[in-house]
């Protein structure tokens, strides 16, 4: 300091830096192909779970749904886990929290409806 006072600096160590691992996107994956929708939803969910902003989105969804899965009506808990299901209606992406087995059921029903057309 200018007046002769001592001051201390804290040095940053390389070990203080968090390591974030990123997984590569599979080469044949296509975001516009409905067959890859589950794959991209899982990637997005993992990204949401690891970011602070994503966790606020999950908390908001949980509170608006009162902790209830809209598919089966059961409570979503830590033991049951959850998946973030995305649907597009009128060019708006809607996200909901559902149980993993309900998420699979939703995608199986979507595939059956698509095949029926």
Distance between the termini: 76 Å
Derived structural class: alpha+beta
Which stretches are poorly predicted, pLDDT < 50 over at least 5 residues? none
Number of strands: 2
What are the main properties of this structure?
117 residues; alpha+beta; elongated
Report on this structure.
The chain has 117 residues and is an alpha+beta fold. It has helices at residues 37-50, 52-64, 100-116, and strands at residues 83-89, 92-98. The model has no long low-confidence stretch (mean pLDDT 85).
Give the helix/strand layout.
Layout: H1 37-50, H2 52-64, E1 83-89, E2 92-98, H3 100-116
Antiparallel strand pairs: 1-2
Helix pairs in contact: 1-2
Give a nutshell description of this structure:
The protein is of the alpha+beta class. Helices cover 38% and strands 12% of the residues.
